[in-house]
Structures are given as C-alpha cells and as structure tokens.
Amino acid sequence: MPEITHLPLASLLTEPVGVAHYVIVGAILFTCGVLCMATKRNALGVLMGIELVLNGANLNFIAFGSSVLRNDANSLGLDGQLIALFVIVLAAAEAAVALAIVLNFYNNYNSVDVDRAELLQG
Amino acid sequence: MIAWLLPLASFVLILFFGKRMGSHGRYAGHVATGAIVTSAVLSFVALFGSWLPNHQLPEQAHHDTDHNSHPEENSHSDEAADHARANNQLPVQQVALALAADEHQAPQVEKPYYYGDWYTWAQFGTLDKPDKLKLTIGYYIDALTVLMFCMVGLIASCVHIYAMGYMHDELHDFTDPEVTLSNGSKLKRPGRYYRFFQYLSLFCFSMFGVVIAGNLAMIFVFWELVGICSYFLIGFYIERKSASNAANKAFIVNRVGDFGMLIGLMALWCSLGTFAFGDKQDDHGAVVRTEAGQIAEPGLFSQLRSQQNDYQLRPTESVIAEQTRIAPKLGAESSEPANTAGQWLLLVAGVGIFCGCVGKSAQFPLHVWLPDAMEGPTPVSALVHSATMVAAGVYLVGRFFPVFTPEVLLVIAYTGCITLLLAATIAITATDIKRVLAYSTVSQLGYMMLSLGLGGWVAGLFHLITHACFKGLLFLCSGSVIHGVHTNDMTEMGGLRKKMPVTAYTMLVGCLAIIGAGLPVVGIGLSGYYSKDAIIELAWHYAILNPTHSILKWAPIIGALITAFYMFRLWYMTFAGQPRNQQRYDHAHESPRVMTGPLVLLAILAISVGWTLPWGNLSVNGLLEQARPDGTLEASHGALLADLQIPNEHHSHAQAIKVPAGWAAFSTAAAGLLLATIIYLWRLLNPAEIRQAFPFRQLHSLLWNKWWFDELYWAVFVAPAMFLARQIARFDLGVLDWILHSMAALCRSGARLVGGFFDATVVDGTVDTFASGTWSLGLWLRKIQTGSLRQYVVFIVVATVLMFVVITRVQVYVASG
Q1: Is residue B104 in some structural domain?
Q2: Answer CATH for A15-111 from 1.10.287.3510, 1.25.40.10, 2.102.10.10, 3.20.20.30
Q3: For residue B564, which of B428, B754, B462 has the smallest C-alpha distance?
Q4: How far is B796 from chain A (nearest CA, A)?
Q5: Are A120 and B787 an interchain contact pair (Cβ–Cβ within 8 Å)?
C-alpha cells in the first residue's frame, strides 16, 4: 500500500471511519442515482434513481449530524438521523405521487418509455 | 350729414339683406329709392329751410342791361345790415372788400361757408408738430355744396324710381340675349335686382361724399369710390364680355387721370402744408384768428388768395420756397424774376388736379371710356355718366378754381375746346342711341371745362346743373325707348312718336334744352339757353381780350351747330318718319308710369331750371354767385404768359358782347336744326348718298371709327403692356417655375436616395439584424428544450453542481478579498 499514498484521498483508506467516508459513500450513491435517472428509459427506473439520490442525501445528513462535528453536550446526537427519517417519509410520498403520474402516463401512451414524453419539445 | 349717410345705410342694408327682400330682392329697390328720396328731400329742406333764409341771395345783376347799381348798393347794404344783425347767431365768413367802383361790376357778395372736421382718421408728423399731415373726414358747405346736393339728390331720386321699373327684368331668372355659351344656348341666370340698387346706393353715398368733402384727401378717397362704383355699375351684366371690358376700361382710364391728380395733390401739400379747403372755424363758425388778426389755420384757398392780396392768386412764400427747392433737381434755374416766382409749381399743381378731372369727366385724351360705358343699364348711364359722376370732375375744377393760375385755366379751356369738337363730330355718325348721348355728354362736359377755363365760374357750373337735368332726361327717355323696342340701334327705329308719345315729347323738350333753344331778344328760353348763352358770351369776351385764342370763341359756336344737328338727327331717326323695322315697331309700347313719371318731372325741370323765381330772387345763378370764391370776379393776368387775360365774368354780360354772342348762338343752333330737318325729316338729301361722296367718305370713316382713338390707344398702350405681360408670364412660367420644379425634383431624388439607401439598408438593416438575431437566438435556445426527461435531469444536476462550485468559489474570493 505505500504505492497509492500519493493519491489525493488515499489517506482515507488508512484512517479510522469518519465524516469524509460517509460523505464519499453518499456522493457515490448520489452519482449512481443521477446516472440511473439520466440513462434509464423506463420511467420506473427513473424513479429508482430518484430514491438512490435521496438516500445519498440521507447519508450526508447523518454524516454531518454526528457528534464528531457537533459538540453539544445536551443533545442526543440524533439530529442527522431525524432529518434522514423525514427525508425517507418525503421520498415515500413523492414516490407515490410520481407513480400516479407514471400511471397516468401509461394510460395515455400505453407505455412507460420516458422518451415518449416529448410533447414539450420546443 | 344725415342726407349724406343715408344712402350708405341703404347700401349696407341691401348688401347684407338684399337676397331676402322679397322675391329676388324686390323690396331692395324700395329701400334704396326711399333712402335717396329722403336724402333729396332733406337737401331741399336744407336749401330752402336753412340756407336761403340765412343767406339771402343778391338781386340778379346779369340779365339786366344797366346796373348802375343803386338798387343793388341798397340791397347790398341791407344785406350787410342783415348779416351784421344776424352775426351773433349765424356764422358767416368776414369778407371785407374794396372794389373799384365800376358801374358794370356787381358788388362782391359775401361768401358764407361752413367748414369743419368730423373725424380725424390719421395723423402723421414729427414730434413737435404731430399734425403735419392730418387726414380727416370733414365738410365744406357753401351754396355750391347745397346746390349740388339738391341736384344730385333730385336726379338720383328720379333715376331710382325709373330704375325700379326698368330693371324689373331682373326680378326673375333672366335670359341674357347677348351672352352665348359654348354650347350655343343663351345664358340663363338668376336675377340680380337687389345688387343693382346696392351699387346705386353706394354710388350716391360716394357722390355726396365728393360734394361735401372738406379737404383734398377726402375728395381723393371718394373720387376713387365713385370710380369703383362706376366700375360695378357698368359691368353689371358681368357675363357679357363687352360689359366687363368696358368696366375695366373705365376704371383704368380713370386711374390714369388719378395719377396726375396725385401729383397735383402732393405738390399742393408740399408747398402749402394742408389739405383743407377752408380756414379753421371755431364752434360758432367764425374763423379762428391769432392775436395779430391773422387767420390761425388757413386752408388752401385762404393761403393762395389771401385777404392782404385782395384775394388775387399769389403764390405764398411756402410755394416759392418749395419751387426754389426742387427747381435745381429738375434742371431749371433757381432764380427767376419776381413776378413768376412760384408760378411753375402752381402750374404743375393745377394741371395735376385737372388731370384727375380729365379722367373722371372724360375729356380729351381720356374720353375713350365714356362711350363704352354705355354697356351698363340705362339708369346707370343716366345717373352716373351724365349727371353726377362726370359732373364730379367739373365740380372739382369749380371747387379748385381759386388755386388755378391763368395758365392752368388756359390748358383747361383748350382741353374743353378740343373735347367738345371731337365728341360732337363723332356723334354725327353714331347709330346707337346711347352712344350718341354719350358723345353728347362728353361734348357738353367740354363746354363746361371750356367755360371754367375762360374764367366763367358761374357759367360753367350753371351749365353743369342744367346739363344734369336735361341729359338725365335724355338718357331716361332713351332707356324708355330701348325698353319698349328692345334694341339700341337707331337704324331699326322710326316713327315711334305715335306709339310712345310721352317719351317722344319729353325727349323733344330735352333736345330743345340741350341745343339752347330760346328767344334771344326777349331773353326767355329753356334752361340750356341760359347756360349756353352765358358760355358763348364769355368766349366772345375772352376772344376780344386775347385775340390769339380766338379759336376758343369759334369752337363753342360751331359746337352748338353740330350739337343741334346730331340731337335732332337722333330725335328724327327715332321718333319721326317711317318705321324702319316693322317688327320692332309693332312690338313697341309705351313705358309704365313708374318710368314716365320721372321723365315728366325732369322735363319740367329742364325747362325751368334757368329761370329766376320772383320771390326771394331764387335762381340757380344767384346761388352760384353766392358760392363764388373770393377774388375770381376780377379780371386777372397771367404770370408766365404775360399777355393772357382772364376776363371779369360779369363784364361779359354787357350789351356790346351779349347781343352778337346771343345771335351767333341762336343762328347756329337754328342752322343745325334746319340741316337735321332737311336730311332726316323732309328727306331732301339722302344721308347714304352723302356718305359715299367725296370728301365725306373718308370723313365718315374717320368719324365712324371715333377718330381711331381706341385703335391708337390699343397700339400704343395696351398692346405693349400685354406684350410685356406675356413676356413676363413666359419668364415666370419658364424660369421661375423651372427653378421651383427642379428644386422639387431635387428634393424628390434626394429623398429617394436617402430613403432608398440609408433607410432601406442601414436603418432597416439594423432592425432586421436585431430581429433575426433574436430569432436565431430563440431558435438556438429552443434546442435546449428537447422534451427528453433524461436530459433535463442531467441539466438539473450539472447546474446544481456548478452553482455550488461557483458559490463556494465566490465565497472564498469574497472572504479572502
């Protein structure tokens, strides 16, 4: 392993797990989610990508809500997790709405192919 | 003053309301006639009611053979006493005279006059003397004014009444037989009855204005007004080319005379400093005098004939000064012998004023407009061109008599002499009844001018008054004939005596009056007899005093012969003998009473105007004597022409002169009458044969063509003027219009250039570029909106990341800076 220590984030491999690790994982999830949203043809695939994005954001919240960054003696240290819970609920509600939209779309076009929704093309 | 302004009111009324007064303005005639009759009545009231009782007429000194003058001295002293008593209430001019006690010389009567200004309408001058040139509306009333007012008012009233009948054609739509339209039919137009009376009223107003005028400027204003009224009235039938040409001719010829009048006017003002006729009078009418006893503001007459000089015409200091001032500029010597100093300026002034009269009264050489003026309706000819407007010229000469030097009077006399012979000869050959009367008018005006030029102030103005009466009568009779027969041409008339008796016999009275019929020994005659005899006596006397000018004696005598000839030729051709055109004869009818009434009235006047009524010594002659300007009764000598003598007018009534002159006049008139009777009534000689025989053929051709005056004037004045006008018009159209058109074309091409190039490419280009730029930008931006959901997602993400980066960078930058 001394060959890869010149890489910028290589020190992350040897340190104990901290905020940076969480943020990076969250970023990877976010990127995967965006990729999925951008490339999937199926509308449901796009919805899955949205979930991924939201989950990556959740990890971010948890990372920044941890006691490493907050030195508040009176709190429970669960702020990050609380927000993540909110976000999960919101994600669920938003997924319901999105599914309703997809259902309507299917009723009109008899397909869930996203490329078919190009009525707003300029 | 009311009498003067009434016709003006009538004119204004008819001007605005004429169309609505009855059908085609029937009542306009009544308005105008009412106005003028009231004016006439007022003037007679003024004459009989206030003038005569206040200013008694002297006894007739003329026609008595022997005036050793005891009765007159007594009466004169009585008058003086009367005046002295009445002096407290009445204004009279103080005239103190010392005359040689000559038994033939009647005592100079006092000349009362009223002079004043009503209204000053302009004043020009320097700071210290602001009224150097004062233009006013003023009056100068003496016996002559009152007399002229009465005469004009009376004749105008007769003419108005007559015109109400004559112009009845204009009450309905009128078909003019002399105007042919381009499609060959005769012109049909609505009647213009009211307009005729409108112009007549304006004319009466202007004529009254001329008569009553108190200063030269006012006379000039009303002179021009009368001229323009004459223009309107002559050109009343505006659609006839002949009428409009005649009206133009009248006005332009008048204007030529007025040019001379302006020169005279200016000369008088520059040298004497005032336009006014009379001396300034205060409220009581007495002449305002300075403490030294001099007249404070003397008028024209007082300056030139002042009391110190026994009222002889002497140029004042100012006149002499003016002449010496301008003489070097004209190349003349500035020093002259004392007795001719200032005379040239007075000569110029006098001839200038006389030029105006030459134009207005149709003397040679400006006589050409009067015969053509017969294109107007006959009442116009009767009023304007026989009795009043042409009389305005003679009136002015009479008014200005004190200003004219004997040389000027000589010029006037010769002009009158030439005119009377010229016109009388042309009248022999004319066949249009109104032309004959027009030339007769010109000839009689020549008589009046001749008499005034010979020094006969009373005789000339007396002839004016009598002429007004009988010429008005003659014209109205001819109008009656024309109305009955519907033609002007005498060669189509004849034998109308039986059909139109009233007209025929009143015209006979007029003819006898104009030739001066009367009995010489007994001394009774028609009105023309008195006035014509006075003129011939005067001419006789003048020729005795100035043998070099004897032609001035023979001219009126020969003129009397010719006058008698052509007047009776007219009467015989119209009323006697066999009808030449049976159709016209059958149609002829007597005129209605509204037209024959004035004829009878004027006939009575023509007979009686010369008489002296026994009560109050009332006569026209006496009134004129009262108005005679001071100092004109004396015999005077010319200054530039040293041997010229103007006789004393009363001297010419001596028996030694009166008898031969009277017989000469009577015999020539009788000879003319006899000749006319031979040729036209008894048909002993045939005029057609005479015309062919030598030398009468050339003579007849000369006379028939009016001595070729119209052609001469056309060639000398009109043709060059029109040529010049055409050339100038060519210049105007060719050069000036070319400049304008090319400038316009230049503007147009410039506009096209600017518009085409600049506007189209630059301005439009900019706008178009903007538009297309925006369009392409829009099109380009459109590409972003693909409608593809996946791409939108990518955009969102990328944009968010970029935003984050930018904000952190900016934050860092701001924090570090």
Answers
A1: no
A2: 1.10.287.3510
A3: B428
A4: 10
A5: yes
| Residue B763 shares a structural domain with residue B791 | no
Neighbours of A122 (CB within 10 A): 11
A39·B786 Cβ contact <8 A = no
Q: Which residues are CB-neighbours of B671 under 8 A, at least 6 positions away?
A: B561, B564
Judged by CB atoms closer than 8 Å, whether chains meet at A117 and B783 is answered as no
Task: Give me the torsion for CA of B363, B364, B370, B371, rounded to 10°.
Answer: 140
What is the identity of the amino acid at B230? S
Predicted complex: ipTM over 0.90: no
Place of tokens 């009575």: B604
Distance, in Å, from the CA atom of B371 to the CA atom of B375, rounded to the nearest integer, reads 8
**Domain identity same for B649 and B738:** no
On whether any CB of chain A is under 8 Å from the CB of B790, the answer is yes
Contact of B516 with B533, CB cutoff 8 Å: yes
Which of B370, B362, B357 is closest to B246 using CA atoms? B370
A37 and chain B: CB distance < 8 Å anywhere?
yes
- Residue B360 corresponds to which amino acid? K
| Residues of chain B with C-beta less than 8 angstroms from the C-beta of A40 | 790
B199 Cβ neighbours under 8 A, 6+ residues apart: B11, B229, B232, B233, B236
**Across the interface, which of A41, A115, A122 has its CB nearest the CB of B782?**
A122
> Each residue of B124-141: pLDDT tens digit?
666 565 556 767 777 777
Q: Which residues of chain B does A33 touch, with a Cβ-Cβ cutoff of 8 Å?
A: none
Q: What are the structure tokens assigned to B494, written together? A: 């004849």
Q: Let me know if residue B18 belongs to a domain.
A: yes
Structure tokens at B295: 């007249």
Instruction: Name residue, tokens 């070099």.
Output: B548
CB of B778 less than 8 A from some CB of A: no
Answer whether B453's CB lies under 8 Å from B538's CB: no
Query: CA geometry: angle at B231 spanning B225 and B237, to 5°?
Result: 145
Identify the closest residue of chain B to A38 by CA–CA distance: B790
- Tell me the two tokens of residue B733: 């159209």
Evaluate the CA torsion angle B114, B115, B121, B127 in order and state its sign: negative
Does residue B700 belong to any structural domain of this protein? no
| pLDDT tens figures, B476-489 | 888 888 888 877 77
Q: What is the DSSP letter of B55?
A: S
**Would you call B129 an interface residue with chain A, using a CB distance cutoff of 8 Å?**
no
Taking an 8 Å cut-off on Cβ atoms, the answer to whether A38 and B793 are in contact is yes
- B785 in A contact zone (CB under 8 Å): yes
Q: Which residues pair with B378 in a beta bridge?
A: none
pTM, full prediction: 0.69
How many structural domains comprise chain B?
3
The number of C-beta contacts closer than 8 angstroms across A and B is 40
- Residue A92 exposed, middle or buried by CB count within 10 Å (0-12, 13-18, 19+): exposed
Residue B789 is nearest to which of A34, A117, A122, comparing CB atoms? A117
Instruction: Determine the structural domain holding residue B745 and report its residue range.
Output: 709-783
- Pair (B677, B745) in one structural domain: no
In order along its 122 residues, chain A shows pLDDT tens digits of 556 556 667 787 888 888 888 999 999 999 999 999 888 999 999 999 999 999 999 999 999 888 777 777 777 778 889 999 999 999 999 999 999 999 999 999 999 888 888 888 76
d(CA B265, CA B221): 12
Show residues of chain B in contact with A118, CB under 8 Å.
786-788
- Chain B residue numbers with beta carbons less than 8 Å from the beta carbon of A114 are 788-790
Distance from the Cα of A56 to chain B's closest Cα (Å) equals: 14
Does B485 lie in the same domain as B398?
Answer: yes
By C-alpha distance, the chain B residue nearest A27 is B801
Nearest to A51 by CA among A104, A7, A19, A92: A92
Distance from CA of A117 to the nearest CA of B (A): 7
Same-domain check for residues B757 and B802: no
